[in-house]
Amino acid sequence: xxxxxxxxxxxxxxxxxxxxxxxxxxxxxxxxxxxxxxxxxxxxxxxxxxxxxxxxxxxxxxxxxxxxxxxxxxxxxxxxxxxxxxxxxxxxxxxxxxxxxxxxxxxxxxxxxxxxxxxxxxxxxxxxxxxxxxxxxxxxxxxxxxxxxxxxxxxxxxxxxxxxxxxxxxxxxxxxxxxxxxxxxxxxxxxxxxxxxxxxxxxxxxxxxxxxxxxxxxxxxxxxxxxxxxxxxxxxxxxxxxxxxxxx
Length: 248
Prior knowledge:
Layout: H1 2-15, E1 26-27, E2 33-34, E3 49-51, E4 55-56, E5 64-65, E6 74-76, E7 86-92, E8 95-103, E9 108-113, E10 117-122, E11 142-143, E12 149-150, E13 168-176, E14 179-180, E15 186-188, E16 190-197, E17 200-208, E18 224-228, E19 235-244
């Protein structure tokens, strides 16, 4: 009986989603901080699944299929594809970012520099007309009330470099924070110096005059946390790292 109970407990443990184990931030000799370590984030929801493989669900392509795996390095945002966003404890101004991600069909995610300037991750493969709401776009400004709506088109990527749903996308971006004088008055806009998605340049020396989405009215600052969006649909991350711009 004791042996049977032990087997049942072990089976339940294997079936349960596994959140990333807590550990300290890992920095490389050339200044990169590995973001696939829970210690860099303010909070990591227990619903994250850590695995060694992920793919579109065979029965429903709007979902990602993944099971926990010991030693896995891929993070999937839970069985339902909606978990609280990830915010770094560290704050960054000028920085370089590398992130590798997969979306389910019609899914939506993104990365926000300083917590408020978003590069959109959206299943946009094959789309002809592009806007800031397309994959790789600088997200439009938006109003929350009386219902959520865009108030501009944002800034479209130069090309549609999106991979099909279920394939890995790779983004490399260099960010320049807004500038302020000694009195705190803004003297220069933030700039997306360069963004390369899947080997194609999608932005270069692009002014970003305000925060994006409903954050556009927020006061701008020299630094802020990096954010990975996890609450808008199924997304997986297999690599993510950041370093101050110019670090060697």
